[in-house]
Specification:
Helix 4 crosses helix 12. The protein has a single domain, classed as Nucleoside phosphorylase/phosphoribosyltransferase catalytic domain (Pyrimidine Nucleoside Phosphorylase, Chain A, domain 2, 3-Layer(aba) Sandwich). The protein is built from 14 helices and 7 strands. By secondary structure, the protein is of the alpha/beta class. The relative contact order is 0.16. The protein is globular. Helix 10 links the parallel strand 4 and strand 5. This is Anthranilate phosphoribosyltransferase.
Length: 333
């Protein structure tokens, strides 16, 4: 069995690459993996270590083809705020703005309803959505990439993570290992103090333009409640910014205003949103959609992005796209 390196000091690029290759290829014992992951978590993972783990997953992914301008909008999860499904709604809104969306996601881990759970409650056949992802992305401009279908190397790791019962580096990996190889992303993480480190990891991996965002209260998306740490990652490296809802011309709202529930509750709220209901949920979606549209190169400012996103909702385009997507997956089942 492979021996993993000591973690008292940050690992070199080569040490980290070798360690995660061994972990993902199953040449290390479960006990050694658990000890290694816990030690990294307690010390605090470095950008090099995060990039190495993500590259290991990328090297072993079952890929899908995607348009060159495809984007992903997702969060790492685990923020504990149990909000409505913002990134799922944002994905529909920006896809309705003609930006291809390769949505990478899974079922809920720590929340009551993940993206897959909510879409299923809306009537989508999630098995068919996963199996027809490449086709739906090409034909209607959006797809759902079920993480479990594309990362076989994680099947052995998942029970170890569950046994550990705490956050590890693998909680950060999903957004960095999109099976479509997207080069533009809006990624939310639940640790505002870690935004720069995570952004440096993405910069090492390479991206055309992406943003890493975190609300000051530990929300894994742009928050309406207060300030947000934002890392804009592109050809110039990592540029740190501070954003508030007012920068997009939107009002502030407390997090409690977008508190979610189970899949049925969240699905009903999402449908009402797409049918034109106003309020805090819509404002949260507009804020995050504005950032995504900036990343996609569709708009120059948050205010312009919020306006374009609102138009896609108010004209019924996002709601029509959801209906089309549900029908597409039924036909593919």
């Amino acid at each position: 069995m492979t021996r993993l390196p000591y973690t008292a000091h940050p690992l070199t690029r080569e040490e980290a690459a070798d360690a995660f290759s061994a972990i993902l290829d199953g040449t290390v014992s479960d006990e050694a993996i658990a000890e290694f992951l816990i030690a990294l978590s307690e010390r605090g993972e470095t950008a090099i270590e995060i990039a190495a783990a993500a590259q290991g997953l990328r090297d072993r992914v079952i890929p899908v083809s995607a348009p060159a301008n495809a984007i992903d909008v997702c969060g790492t999860g685990g923020d504990g705020h149990h909000t409505l499904n913002v990134s799922t709604a944002v994905s529909l809104v920006i896809a309705a703005c003609d930006v291809p969306v390769a949505k990478h996601g899974n079922r809920a881990a720590s929340s009551k309803a993940g993206a897959a759970d909510t879409l299923e409650a809306l009537g989508m056949d999630m098995a068919a959505a996963g199996a027809s992802a490449e086709q739906s992305l090409a034909e209607i401009g959006i797809c759902f990439l079920f993480a479990v279908n594309h990362h076989p190397a994680m099947r052995r790791i998942q029970p170890i993570r569950q046994k550990i019962g705490r956050r590890t580096i693998f909680n950060l990996m999903g957004p960095l290992a999109n099976p479509a190889g997207v080069r533009r992303q809006l990624i939310g993480i639940a640790r505002p103090g870690y935004v720069h480190v995570y952004a440096e990891a993405l910069n090492m991996l390479g991206t055309e333009r992406s943003m890493i965002v975190s609300g000051d209260e530990g929300l894994d998306e742009l928050s309406l409640a207060g300030g947000n740490e934002v890392a804009d990652v592109g050809p110039s490296g990592v540029i740190m910014k501070r954003w508030r809802a007012s920068d997009a011309g939107l009002p502030a709202h407390p997090i409690e205003a977008i508190r979610g529930g189970d899949a049925a509750h969240n699905a009903a709220a999402l449908r009402r949103l797409l049918q034109g209901e106003t309020g805090p949920y819509r404002d949260a979606v507009l804020f995050n959609a504005a950032a995504a549209l900036m990343i996609a190169g569709e708009v120059e400012t948050l205010a312009e992005g919020a306006e374009e996103a609102a138009e896609a909702i108010d004209k019924g385009l996002a709601n029509a796209l959801l209906n089309c997507w549900i029908d597409f997956t039924k036909a593919a089942a």
